[in-house]
């Protein structure tokens, strides 16, 4: 999966269904680029389109169970890799220092 596909899939999983136009704006890409990303995800069954219940003319995209599964697998693998590196390459003191900066990194991520 491309980084843009992962980003869109994660956004749909985290924030819920949204329109292609809104997703393009949130991801800061052109609508045409978002259409390509969504088409690739839809072709693999990772997202699905449905009509907006409030406005039948509007299409919403949502993550499917398969899409949520792919994200969970990616997260699990990332956690395994991170844990292994931390245990093998960092001392206990270094790990404590990393823990101390996590609140600052969370605050930074909220602003991005």
Strand content: 5-15%
Mean pLDDT over all positions: 94
Largest sheet: 2 strands, antiparallel
Structural class: mainly alpha
Radius of gyration: 18 Å
Ends distance? 23 Å
Q: Give start-end ranges of low-pLDDT stretches.
A: none
Looking at the structure, what is the overall shape?
A: elongated
Q: Count every beta strand, where a strand is a DSSP E run of 2 or more residues.
A: 2
Q: Helix-strand pattern, N to C?
A: HHHEEHH
Instruction: Figure out the total of helices.
Output: 5
What is the spatial order of strands in the main beta sheet? 1-2
What share of residues is helical? over 70%
Descriptive notes:
The chain has helices at 3-15, 20-27, 31-43, 65-89, 92-111, and strands at residues 47-51, 59-63. It is mainly alpha-helical and 112 residues long. The chain is elongated. Helix content is 71%, strand content 9%.
What's the structural blueprint in terms of helices and strands?
Blueprint: H1 3-15, H2 20-27, H3 31-43, E1 47-51, E2 59-63, H4 65-89, H5 92-111
Antiparallel strand pairs: 1-2
Helix pairs in contact: 1-3, 2-3
